[in-house]
Specification:
There is one protein chain. With 229 residues, this protein is of the alpha+beta class. Helices cover 36% and strands 17% of the residues. The protein is built from 7 helices and 10 strands. The chain has a 4-stranded antiparallel β-sheet. A hairpin with a 2-residue loop joins strand 8 and strand 9.
């Protein structure tokens, strides 16, 4: 098996005033505003993380919800820039969704269980969402995750998949650019691979962003050590 390396792509550019505005929006009473702000933050590049840190420090003290959202954004941005192994002979697409239970053929739609940080779904889909239709393939009936996985793996990385989902009973349409399918997810060690990635993101947060958490104090020796990759 020939292996290659893939890297999830990120876009956007850091703007201090814009970042501060998005951080304020993360504290909005409107859940749609909060989600829009979080999605925009997740679209940043890894080299912009120090700017995000500075903007967040400038807004301190932050609300718990703001800190939690920034933490999600940091995990997404940090892991989206990670390289991982892919098999060019198995070029199926990947959304970044993971299920720990076998598919239920009697289920209506696809209930979102686990999203993997660093991939397309983490940015636009939330736990508890229910995918009710693949807009690009309206004839496909979704009963559990099996049909969705089959469609995604027949598509190519870089293609856009349009999904209709229900979020708290409200219909939403999302467009996701498919990533490459990681080798590890077909090698029987998906859980340990996901855990290892999450731990690296956790270590980065603790090193660079934990100062945002209540009780933390930024001292003279706690300046950011992160350098652009």
């Amino acid at each position: 098996m020939v292996l290659a390396l893939a890297m999830a792509s990120t876009g956007g550019a850091a703007n201090p005033a814009g970042l501060q505005s998005l951080i304020v929006q993360l504290g909005s009473d409107n859940p749609q505003f909060r989600q829009e702000a979080l999605s925009q933050l997740m679209d940043m590049k890894k080299q912009d993380l120090p700017a995000l840190r500075a903007a967040a420090l400038g807004q301190s003290p932050l609300l718990p919800g703001q800190i939690g959202a920034i933490r999600q954004a940091v995990s997404q941005i940090f892991l989206a820039a990670e390289r991982y192994r892919v098999d060019p002979e198995v070029p199926g697409g990947f959304l970044g969704l993971h299920w720990t239970a076998p598919p239920d053929p009697s289920a209506e739609g696809v209930v979102i269980d686990e999203r993997i940080p660093g991939f397309a779904a983490y940015r636009l889909i939330q736990p508890g969402d229910v995918i009710v239709q693949i807009v690009d393939f309206p004839a496909v009936q979704l009963h559990g995750n099996r049909e969705l996985v089959q469609v995604v793996q027949r598509m190519w990385p870089g293609q856009v998949l349009h999904l209709k989902l229900l979020r708290l009973g409200r219909p939403i349409n999302v467009a996701l650019v498919l990533d490459f399918l990681p080798v590890e997810l077909n090698a029987g060690n998906a859980d340990s691979w996901i855990q290892d990635r999450n731990q690296r993101a956790e270590d980065y947060w603790n090193r660079e962003f934990s100062v945002l958490e209540p009780g933390s104090v930024l001292g003279p020796t706690q300046a950011s050590t992160d350098a652009p990759p």
